[in-house]
């Protein structure tokens, strides 16, 4: 997914431009740290104190110039309007957050307001268009049947929502098409490069991307 995000940033902004990035619900800060090391100014919002401590620890090992470009705010994803003015950022990340909030439409509208004109909104969401796929592949038949009854917050609805909040969908990818059923702690395969190449290709190719465990959507502020 990091490669997909980099591809969108490189394709949208001039080379060498230092972007203002907001990472809403930054978690352990993998994307935020990668972007700040690339020269961008990153603000991370996170409510979990343990996660913030993890990011601060990782940041402490970076050069001073990198540390100066990173700002961390303890707060909830829905509070962006409290901390920032509309249009304050060139890129807004909201990865793995929507599935944990009761009103994702309101959260999306709030984070989209943070984008400057032409800004990029990057979302990582659970693929509710195919909720029976993962349990079915794992042999969890009861879970698969329950998945068919899940109310979808999938690609079609997200596309409509993004258009309605002024950040229409620009492109989208599937994430974890083949690998989501791997057990936690399972050792990496010897042919890891081949696996990554297959996932990268599948995430861009129909019909495979449509049944991925996660969707990576990129909208652009009009």
TrEMBL record:
It comes from the Bacteria. Transmembrane segments: none annotated. InterPro entries: Methyltransf_11 (IPR013216), SAM-dependent_MTases_sf (IPR029063). Keywords: Methyltransferase, S-adenosyl-L-methionine, Transferase. GO terms for biological process: methylation. It comes from Streptomyces toyocaensis. This is Methyltransferase. GO terms for molecular function: S-adenosylmethionine-dependent methyltransferase activity. Residues 22-122 form the Methyltransferase type domain.
């Amino acid at each position: 997914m990091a490669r997909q995000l980099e591809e969108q940033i490189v394709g949208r902004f001039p080379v060498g431009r230092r972007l203002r990035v907001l990472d809403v619900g930054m978690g352990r800060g993998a994307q935020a740290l990668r972007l700040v090391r690339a020269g961008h100014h990153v603000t991370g919002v996170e409510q979990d104190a343990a996660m913030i401590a993890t990011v601060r620890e990782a940041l402490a090992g970076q050069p001073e110039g990198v540390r100066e470009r990173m700002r961390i705010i303890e707060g909830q994803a829905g509070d962006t309007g409290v901390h920032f003015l509309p249009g304050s950022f060139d890129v807004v990340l909201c990865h793995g957050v929507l599935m944990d909030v009761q009103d994702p439409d309101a959260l999306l509208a709030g984070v989209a307001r943070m984008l400057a004109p032409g800004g990029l909104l990057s979302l990582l969401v659970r693929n509710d268009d195919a909720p029976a796929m993962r349990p079915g592949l794992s042999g969890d038949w009861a879970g698969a049947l329950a998945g068919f009854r899940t109310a979808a917050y999938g690609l079609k609805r997200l596309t409509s929502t993004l258009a309605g909040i002024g950040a229409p969908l620009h492109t989208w990818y599937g994430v974890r098409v083949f690998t989501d059923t791997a057990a936690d702690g399972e050792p990496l395969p010897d042919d890891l490069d081949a696996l990554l190449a297959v996932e990268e290709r599948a995430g861009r190719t129909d019909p495979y991307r449509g049944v991925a465990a996660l969707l990576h959507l990129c909208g652009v502020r009009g």
